[in-house]
Amino acid sequence: MQIQRTSVSSHANRKIPIAVAAVVADVLAPRYTHNRIDHFMERAGIEGEIPPGINKVDKTRAWLKVANEKCTDPLAALGTVLVELMEVDTAGYGVQTDLSEDRQKVQTALGAHGLCYFKGGFIAASGATAVSKTIEEIIRERDLAGLRTEFDRIFKNVESDPATTVTASCALLESLFKTYIEEESLQMPADQSIRPLWKVIRADLNFDPGATSDQDLKTVLSGLVAIVEGIGALRTHKGSAHGQGKITYKLKPRHARLTAHASFTLANFVLETWGEHS
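and the corresponding C-alpha cells:
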C-alpha cells in the first residue's frame, strides 16, 4: 500500500516504474519500427541522447529512462507514448490487428502501481477506475461532447494543476445537468451555475431528501446535495483565503482526485437513473 500511495501522491513523484517501462518496451518493440518508436517519444516531448545501434527493446527502455530524468511529468509523457498502442487497432502499418492482449499487459503493469491508462493518453490513479470507465462509456455512447471535454480535462490536470481539475469536475456536472434539462425539455434556470441546475435535476429525478420517508436513503440523498454544494464552493474559492483570519489552503492532487471521484459518482448516479427513467 505504501508503494501505491507514493507512486501517485505528488506531481514530483510521477516517475515511470521500472517494471512498467519494461513491459511497455516489450510490447512496443515487436509492433513498431525504430522510426515509429522515436516518433512516439518526440511527440511526448521526451528529448535526449540514445546510444546508437541498440535494439528496439533497449531503445524504448532508454527513452523512458530519459523521460524519468528530464520530463516534468514522466507519466504524462508515457501516456502520450501509449496512445497509438492503446487506442488504434493497427500494428503500426495500417493493418488492423487484435491488440487486446498487449493492452491488458500494459494496464496490468500500471495497475500493480495503483495506476491506469485512460482514453486520450492520460495515466492517473486507479481508485475510481470502475466508475470513471462507466461514465466514459456512456459519454461515448450518447455522444456527449461537453462531458467528454471536461472528462479529459480532469485526467490531464489532476496531478499538474489540481485547481483546474476541480473546475473541470464542477463543469462536468454542470454540462451533464444542462444536457439533461435540454433533452427532457425542462425549464432552464436563469442562473446556470451548478446549484440552480442541480435543483432542477433533483426535483425531476426525485433526488430531494425531503421526498422520501426512508431515513437511510434520505441520508444518502443529503450526501448528494453536499457533493454539489462542496464542489461548487471549492471551484469558486479554489482554496484561496476569504476574509481576515482564514488560512490559505493550497489544493493538492489528492484534493483534486477527491473532487473528481465525487463528481464521477454523482454523474454516474444521474446517468443511471436517467437511463432507467428513459
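(Above: one complete record from the training split.) The radius of gyration is 21 Å.
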